[in-house]
Automatic annotation (TrEMBL), chain A:
Its EC number is 1.13.11.3. It holds the Pfam family PCDO_beta_N. Belongs to the intradiol ring-cleavage dioxygenase family. This is Protocatechuate 3,4-dioxygenase beta chain. It comes from the Bacteria. One of its GO terms (biological process) is 3,4-dihydroxybenzoate catabolic process. InterPro entries: Intradiol_dOase_C, Intradiol_dOase_core, Intradiol_RC_Dioxygenase, PCDO_beta_N, Protocat_dOase_b. It comes from Sinorhizobium medicae. PANTHER family: DIOXYGENASE, PUTATIVE (AFU_ORTHOLOGUE AFUA_2G02910)-RELATED (PTHR33711), INTRADIOL RING-CLEAVAGE DIOXYGENASES DOMAIN-CONTAINING PROTEIN (PTHR33711:SF10).
TrEMBL record, chain B:
InterPro entries: Intradiol_dOase_C, Intradiol_dOase_core, Intradiol_RC_Dioxygenase, Protocat_dOase_a. Gene3D superfamilies: Aromatic compound dioxygenase (2.60.130.10). Belongs to the intradiol ring-cleavage dioxygenase family. One of its GO terms (molecular function) is protocatechuate 3,4-dioxygenase activity. Pfam families: Dioxygenase_C (PF00775). Residues 55-83 form the Intradiol ring-cleavage dioxygenases domain. Its EC number is 1.13.11.3. PANTHER family: DIOXYGENASE, PUTATIVE (AFU_ORTHOLOGUE AFUA_2G02910)-RELATED (PTHR33711), PROTOCATECHUATE 3,4-DIOXYGENASE ALPHA CHAIN (PTHR33711:SF9). This is Protocatechuate 3,4-dioxygenase subunit alpha.
C-alpha cells in the first residue's frame, strides 16, 4: 500500500480534521421499520470529539494491488470465454469530498446480487437461480480526478424477511475508503426510475428525501456503449476536511 | 442572502447488509479466485518492528448474541507511534507495517481476530500523549451507519488514566468499555452494541 500520488492539489497531504458529520442527513441507528436495527443500534449518546491524528490519517491503497478484472464483475468470476448473465451496465462516477474536491486513490469496493436477485452466499435462501459465472464483488481505485468505473450486470430486486412482503429495490453496495479513517463510508446505489426505492424500509430510514435522491444513479446516456452496455453515473461524497492554514498544532503540522 | 458556500452533502450511509463479506472478504465467504487474498487479512510480516499482539473479540447485540455477519476494521500507529499515512507529518512510519486490518466476524463463533503489533503513543491536539490505542470501525446488517470506537490496553493503567479521550467520558464507569481484557500478548475486546455494557462509540 504505497501512494503514487501525482498531479495538482492532492499532492500536498492534508492534515485538517474532518467537517462534523451531519447525523440528521444519515439514517439514525435505531430505525424500527428496519427490524434488524432494533437490537443493533447503540442507545447511548456518541462521544463527540474533534478528530485527532488517529482519525484524520488513513492508509493509502496503491493501484498496483488491483488485478486486471477487479472492476469487471461480468468476467472476474466467469469461466474462461463465458460471462455473467444479465443486463450489461457500466457504473462510473467520481469520489469527491464535501468541498467538491476529487478524492484521489480512494478504494471503492462493491458487491451485489446477480441479475435474478440472488447473492452467492451460503446463508442466502432466495429461490432465484445462482449464476455459475457471477461472483458478485469488485473493486477500483480512483484516479487523480477522483474517477472510478466498473462493468457489471444490473442486479435484480429481491425479497427479504422484514415486513410480510418487503423487497429490496435493485441496488449495489459500496464501500469507500478515502484519506482518513473517519471518512470511512458504506452505502448503497439505486437505479434511476425504480419505483421500489420508495417502498424500501432501509431506504426509508433516511430522513431527508434529498439524501435519498443522492443515492440514485442516473442513466448516463452519453457514456452508454452502443450495442454493448448502458451506463449509470454515481458520484459519491465523502466528508470534507478543514484547511489548516492558521492552525499551529504542537505535533508539528 | 449571502454567497452560497458551495459545499456538497456527504453521501448518506446505508447498512452493509447481511452479505458484506461478499464484497470485503470474498475469500473468507467462499468466493475464491477473484482476489488473491482478502484485503487487510494480514498486518505484519517478519520485518515488522514491535511487540506482536493478538486482538480478538466479538460484536454483541442487545440480546447478548454475537454478530456473525459483521465486519471490523482497525487502524493504528506503528510501534513508534507513527501512522503510515500521507497525513502523518512527524516522521516515516515502519514501512513493514501499514497499520490497517480488516476481519470478518466468524460464521461459527462470531470472533474477529487481528495479529498486529502494540501501537506506540500518539499526541492529542494539545500535544499531550494519548494512551496506546487502536481505532475500530464496525459495520453489519442492522447497523445503519458504521460505528467508530477505540480499544485501549489493560496493562497501561497510568497512561489510560491520563488519556484525554477517556477523560471526556462523563459516566466514568463507561470508560472501562474501551479497555480490552486479557494481557500481553493476547487481548480480548468485546464490543457491546446495547445494554449495561454498551461500548462508548465515537462521533469523530
Ligand atoms: Fe443487498
Amino acid at each position: 500500500m504505497s501512494g503514487d500520488q501525482s498531479g495538482g492539489e492532492n499532492d500536498r497531504p492534508e492534515t485538517g480534521a474532518f467537517f462534523a458529520r451531519d447525523r440528521a442527513w444519515h439514517p439514525p441507528a435505531f430505525a424500527p421499520g428496519y427490524k434488524s436495527s432494533v437490537l443493533r443500534s447503540p442507545q447511548k449518546a456518541l462521544l463527540s470529539l474533534d478528530g485527532t491524528l488517529s482519525e484524520i490519517t488513513g492508509p493509502v491503497f496503491g493501484h498496483s494491488m488491483l488485478g486486471e478484472l477487479d472492476n469487471d464483475l461480468i468476467h472476474n468470476f466467469a469461466k474462461p470465454g463465458e460471462s455473467a448473465i444479465g443486463e450489461r451496465i457500466i457504473v462510473h462516477g467520481r469520489v469527491l469530498d464535501e468541498r467538491g474536491r476529487p478524492v484521489q486513490d480512494a478504494l471503492v469496493e462493491f458487491w451485489q446480487a446477480n441479475a435474478g436477485g440472488r447473492y452467492r452466499h451460503r446463508k442466502e435462501s432466495y429461490l432465484a437461480a445462482l449464476d455459475p459465472n457471477f461472483g458478485g464483488c469488485g473493486r477500483a481505485i480512483t484516479n487523480g480526478d477522483g474517477h472510478y468505473c466498473f462493468r457489471t450486470v444490473k442486479p435484480g430486486a429481491y425479497p427479504w424477511p422484514n415486513g410480510v412482503n418487503d423487497w429490496r429495490p435493485a441496488h449495489i453496495h459500496f464501500s469507500i475508503f478515502g484519506h482518513g479513517f473517519a471518512q470511512r463510508l458504506i452505502t448503497q446505489m439505486y437505479f434511476e426510475g425504480d419505483p421500489m426505492i420508495w417502498k424500501c424500509p432501509i431506504v426509508g430510514a433516511i430522513p431527508d428525501r434529498r439524501a435519498i435522491e443522492q443515492l440514485i444513479a442516473a442513466l448516463d446516456w452519453g457514456n452508454t456503449v452502443p450495442m454493448d452496455a448502458r451506463a449509470y453515473k454515481f458520484d459519491i461524497v465523502l466528508r470534507g476536511r478543514r484547511s489548516t492554514f492558521f492552525e499551529n498544532r504542537p505535533e508539528g503540522n | 442572502m449571502a454567497q452560497d458556500l458551495g459545499y456538497l452533502k456527504e453521501t448518506a450511509s446505508q447498512t452493509a447488509g447481511p452479505y458484506v463479506h461478499i464484497g470485503l472478504t470474498p475469500n473468507f465467504c467462499g468466493i475464491g479466485g477473484v482476489y488473491e487474498a482478502d484485503l487487510g487479512a494480514s498486518m505484519v510480516n517478519d520485518r515488522t518492528l514491535g511487540q506482536r499482539i493478538t486482538v480478538t473479540g466479538r460484536v454483541i447485540d442487545g440480546a447478548g448474541m454475537p454478530l456473525k455477519d459483521a465486519l471490523v476494521e482497525i487502524w493504528q500507529a506503528d510501534a513508534a507511534g507513527l501512522y503510515n499515512s500521507p497525513s502523518e507529518r512527524r516522521g516515516a512510519a515502519d514501512p513493514n507495517f501499514a497499520g490497517w486490518g480488516r476481519s470478518p466476524t466468524g460464521a461459527d463463533d462470531g470472533m474477529f481476530t487481528f495479529e498486529t503489533v502494540k501501537p506506540g503513543r500518539v499526541p492529542f491536539h494539545d500535544g499531550r500523549l494519548m494512551a496506546p490505542h487502536i481505532s475500530f470501525w464496525i459495520v453489519a446488517r442492522g447497523i445503519n451507519i458504521g460505528l467508530h470506537t477505540r480499544m485501549y490496553f489493560p496493562d497501561e493503567a497510568a497512561a489510560n488514566a491520563a488519556d484525554p479521550l477517556l477523560a471526556r467520558i462523563e459516566h466514568r464507569h463507561r470508560a472501562e468499555t474501551l479497555v480490552a481484557a486479557g494481557r500481553t500478548p493476547n487481548y480480548v475486546f468485546d464490543i457491546h452494541l446495547q445494554g449495561e455494557k454498551e461500548t462508548v462509540f465515537l462521533d469523530i
